[in-house]
Each structure stands twice: as C-alpha cells, then as structure tokens.
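Bug: token stream looks shifted between consecutive jobs. Job 1:
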Amino acid sequence: MDDAVLERIFRDEYGRVVASLARRFGDLDLAEEAASEALVVAVEKWTADGIPPNPGGWLTTTAGNKALDRLRRESRRDAKHQAAFMLADDTPPEPTGPVEDDRLRLVFTCCHPALAPEARVALTLRLLGGLTVPEIARAFFVAEPTMGQRITRAKAKIKAANIPFKVPEVEDLPARLDAVLAVVYLVFNEGYLAGEGESPTRVDLSDEAIRLARVMRVLLPDEAEVAGLLALLLLTDARRSSRFAGGELVPLSEQDRAGWDRSLIEEGHALVRECLARVARGEGRPGRYQLLAAINAVHTDAARAADTDWSQVLALYDQLQRIDPGPVVALNRAVAVAELDGPDVALAIVDRLPLTSYHAWHATRADLLRRVGRTTEARQEYDAAIEATGNAAERAYLGRRREQLV
C-alpha cells in the first residue's frame, strides 16, 4: 500500500478522531493516545486487507475501543469511566452549545481564556490539525522542547480546571473569538505552504481551515472579522492551482491568473464589500483579517500583475501596521514600498526588522539586493533563505533565482 495514501488519510482524519474522543471521554491525553494506537493498528490491518470504505469511521471506532481498553486496564472505575460506557451506545448526546461540531468544539476548548494565548493556538494546531511539535515550534519561532512543554502544560491546565468540551453560548463567543480566528488562520497557512516535506502544500489543513471559517460565519454572521477571515482564506486559496509549476513555487507576480478559481474570488470579493459597507455605516473599524482580505482583493482584482494598484495596497498595509505593528506586517509592507518608491527604500526598511531567523525575510532581502545590483550579498541571502525553509518547492524556486544571478 502506498505510504503517501495512508499519510493523507491519517492527516485528514486525525483531527476528527481526536475531537470525537475528546468530546466523548473528556480527556485529551486519552484521546491522543487512543488515536495514535488506532493509526498503528490501521497500518497493519489496511496493508493486509486494504483501506475500508469509511476509513474515518473505522479509525474513530477503533480508537474508541482502544480508549475503553485503556480505561479498563487502568481500572479507572470513576464517573468518567462510567460516562464513557454510557456514551458507547447510539444514544445522541445532549446539546453542548449553539453549534454541534466536534472539531469546532475542540477549537473553543483549546482557546479557553484560562490558557495562555500562545498555548491556545499551539494546542489546537496539535490536536485539530495533527501538526507535529517541530512544525508548531517553527510557526512560533521557538525551540521544540519549549513548544512540547507548552502543549503539555496546556493539556494539564484543561484537565485541572475541568474546562468543558463545548462551544460557548452565543453571548460568550466574542470574548473567545480572537484566539479562534488566529488558530484557523495558522492552520490554513501551514496547509497553504507546508513548513517541510516534499509536498509543497497540505490541502487537508487549508480545506479544514476554510471549513471551520465557514462554520464560524454561520455561527457569527454579524462579526466582521469572521467575514474578513473567510474572505482572506478564499482569496488566497483561489490561487492554489497556479502557485506551483515544475516542482517550484510560483510567486504572485508570475502566476497564470487564468488558472485562478473565479468562484472563490467572487465569493471573497463579496465578503470584502460586505465588510466595507459595515465600515461605511459606522459599524466599527476594520480589523486585521478584514484588511488582509482587502489587500488580497486588490491583488485578485488585477488582470495582470502590472495592473496591481500598489498605492492602495500600501495604504491598506499602513492601516494594518497601525493596529498590528509587527515585523512580519512591516516586511510585507516593504514589498509594496519597493514597487512604489524603489527597492533601495524598501531595503532600508527590511534591514531594520528583527527577522533574521525567518526565511521570508531572507528571501525578500535577496530579491531587493538583486534589484539594486548587490549580487554577492543577494547570493548569500538566497542561501540563507534556502537553509531556513523546509518546503521543497520553495527551495527549488529560491535555488533557481540564485543561479540566475550574474
């Protein structure tokens, strides 16, 4: 059996299995351990007998049995043990929030206010997205042991504080929203450009993030940042099929725009217009995701890269920088500055940013150095960018650009 097929199934189903077991047993460690045991059994069973018609259901059932076996072995004859057996039948569970979705329920559990913000995102990426500790550590720019400890402490906090596995009631949702949106966006980003491996994307993660954003949109139809996030994901994902060619990443300026998904672009533009209408009615100022969506709307509105309204892009980044003044925003803003004021002006901005461990900083700096004719330094920056990224398609693109230097 093709290992790639097994890996894809496991990636697709891991979050569903863990979320289902977490809701059923109320124990994250048990859910993770049982899910992992089920995957081990699946490798042996499916290699011999073939993949079952419903692999997700098979994994969930097997993992549930493994969890019950573990409880029996450990002789945990408490209320939790009894509850687990009660839920083993086909009786539907009692309602546990305004939306009945195990994965969304798990997101909100992991984003409980009792947990530190960085722990909320990391834990959800681990449990829902099935990302490894190294993948999450790279997303946060921290050491692997630090991230492992952070996730372990977060799970212990949920257990000790008896945090319920449920979607909050509608009146409690806004206070929990920022962390949930951040989680969904990070899951999408890891899927849209995988941090490592020979596959440049993880479509299972980007699709799952869009699915969650759509569920959130139904849950909170009047929340502009939810609409903004969904618009951002759709407008970004619309370019998926044009982002790679010949094993290489294709930058936005070189993509075949005829290959973009027009239906996703139209849906994303409609959401951006809805957000703009809210602002025009005086219903608050646009937040981070609305501004990022608006920037992507400008890019996807241009028939050719040369038609991009860079002055509008820069104005939107200026707004974004005022509410989210981080170095990554400044780096992306510098790209727009380069188009309007020249690469030398942008390079002066980039050189001041504390992002020397970030591959995109090196890649951006390499391109700007190339454009101002500082070839030797550009070559060094391309080398640093290649070293800092684990994505094979991105490495191939950067390597080709390096070889083109004269």
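Job 2, same session, no restart:
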Amino acid sequence: MNPSTEPIAVVPERLPWRHTFISLRVHNYRLFAASNFIAVIAVWMQRISQDWIVLQLSGSVAAVGVTVAMQFTPVLLLGPWGGLMADRFSKRRLLQMCQATAGLCAATLAFLALTHSLQVWHVYAIAVVLGLVTVLDQPSRQVFVNELVGPQYLRNAISMNSTIFQLGGLIGPAVAGALLSAVGGGSAFVFNAVACTLTVVMLSLLRVDDLHTAPPTPKSKGMLREAVRYAWAKPTIRWPWVLAGAVAVFALSLPVLLAGYADHVFGIGASGYGLLNTLVALGSLTGAVASARRRLLRLRTVVFGAGLYGALLALASFMPSLPVFGALMAVSGFCALTFLTSANQLVQTSANMAIRGRVMSLYTMVLMGGQALGGPMLGGLAQLWGTRWALLLGGTVPAVVAGLLALWLRGKHEE
C-alpha cells in the first residue's frame, strides 16, 4: 500500500458506545470541555449577531465578507508566529491572555450596541483585534488538548472538541436569531464577554501537575523553515493542507452567503438566518460524533469529505425550496465536519510533539487565512452575480480539487 494513503490505526478495536466520549474521564479535560461548551455557544452568538448587524447597517453582503476578512487576515499574515509562541511558551498562559482580550472586545461591542452607537467600522476594528487574538489562541488551543489528555485520548479529545463546537453551533445561532428579533444583538456580546471570563477562571483551576506538558522548544534559527520542510515531506500533512486551502477560500465562509440567502433569496430575516446556521451545525454535530468512533485515519476520508461538501453546496445553490435547501445545508455540515475533523486528526497525529505547534499554526494559517480571502471574495461575488452563483462557485472549486487529488492518489496507489 502506498504510504500516502495507508490508514493510521488509532484504536485496536471499535469503541463501545459508552467510550464514545472517553476523554471526558480526564478531570482537566472535563473542566476544559464544560467551559469551552459555554464559550463556543457565546462565540457563535457573537458571530451571528455581528454579521447580521453589519448586513442591516450596510445593506451589503459584501460588507459581511469584509468582516470575515478583517478577522482572519491576521492569521494569514502572522499564523506561523503564533505556532512559534505555542512551541516555546506555556499554552495555558497564552490561552488565558487570549481569552481575557477577547472578553474585552466582546464587552466593547456590547457597550456600543446597547447604547445604539455601534457602526460598521467599529465591528471591523474589533474584528482585527480578534484576529490577532486568534493568531495565538488557535495553535495554543490545538496543542493544549494533548497536554490535557495525553497521547492515549488525543484523537477522541479532538473529536470531542469538534462535537462541542458543533453543538455550540447548533444552539448559538438559534439563540442569537431569537435575541436579534426580540432585543437586538447587544445581549449576545454581553454573553460572550461573560463566557470569556469564565474560560480564564477555568484555566486557573486546572490541576497543573496532571498536565502532559512537553518541554518548551528552545529558540533557534530557521524554526519555521524546518516546520514547512517537515510538513511538506509528509503526504498525511501536505494533502490536508492543500484541501484545507481550497475549502477555506471557497466554502468555509458559508455564513456570509447564508446571510444573503436569508435576506435576499428566501426573505426569512434574522431568525431564519440563525435557523440556516443551526441546520448546518446539526449536520456537523452528527459528523463530529461519527468521527469520535472512527477506528482508522485515512487520507481518502479527508479527500472524500472535502469533495462531497463542495458538491453538496453546488447542488444546493439553485434549490428554489427552502426546506430542500435547509436539508442540503444539514448534510453539507456533516461532510464539512468529516473533512475538518479527519484533516485535523491526521495532521496532529502525523506531527512530532516538538514541532506540532508550528505545524498546526501553518495548518491554521491556511484554514483560517483562506477565509480572509474567501469571505470578501464570496461576498463581492454575491453582490455582483447574485448569492446563488457565488455559492455555486464556492462549492464547485473544492469539489474539483478533491476529485483531481483522488484521481492522482489512485494512480499512485496503482503504481
């Protein structure tokens, strides 16, 4: 079997259902997961409220795309630096600093919204600050999971994180949509500020002696070049990178287009926008639970998930019926999470601990930085061509890239 497609065995036998969430047996991870669940709900509430407020203030889907660009451009430009920090310093301390800053940003948005002073440029400015926070937060958070549970439960904990994120994505948009219709978006920002404070407190309560802390990597010349060479030499890291780039640029800024569908195509308002995001999260939650029970990590699973996700978005683009469109969004959420979780697991388990922070920062740079390009691009295309044509393009490109990669890997396998 070709090493680029050879499955990685991660558990000796299929897990019984009672072990689906086995990483929650670890005290530190259980505490982290509980506060993270609240934080994810709050982040989704802020994201939905922020995007809808920008759409209402500007009347432009393109402006929503600019918000995405503002938040993810710092990751595109500075992502590797965040990985260096994660390899060299305490991940717990970095996360505390990041969450404290994110809480201040949420509190600022809340004050401006509740005093009816919020303008689009305020959202843009705070999005940039949150992007700078993400530069440090994401690689630190990715590697910190291993410190919480150790290598034995790492894969399960990654799947648990995805499950928590999608369950939060199931609840957060629905709550945000209801709040937007009832009292406005300010309350969502207040909730996020409180959730960030809770996360800082939780990180202080962890049992430090139980953490599987790796020795910090000493500073040396060429650390980023070393990480790039290391990652590119491994097909199980290289190809998820390539697919992550295609999916991130063209298909991960889906909320931007869903805002257009809710407002311009189906006319279902803020609560409908929250509902569409909830349907995507419902499918994603199912995919996250399925990933927690997967026995083998295969590159082909990553490729198939990316390809099918793109194909479903393209299929949904011109669906005239809201129920059918919503159903396709739910199934696309399952495929997106299959891709994202499998890719994350494959990259993490393929990287040595001493270099994992840098590898994950590069992966995050592609995944989130791609949205900095894709958000305004898709928003602009939706404004120029219409939302349906923008979604068609957004789905077709990753489907074609995944299909071409599948054919290439099949040819290599038959050599």
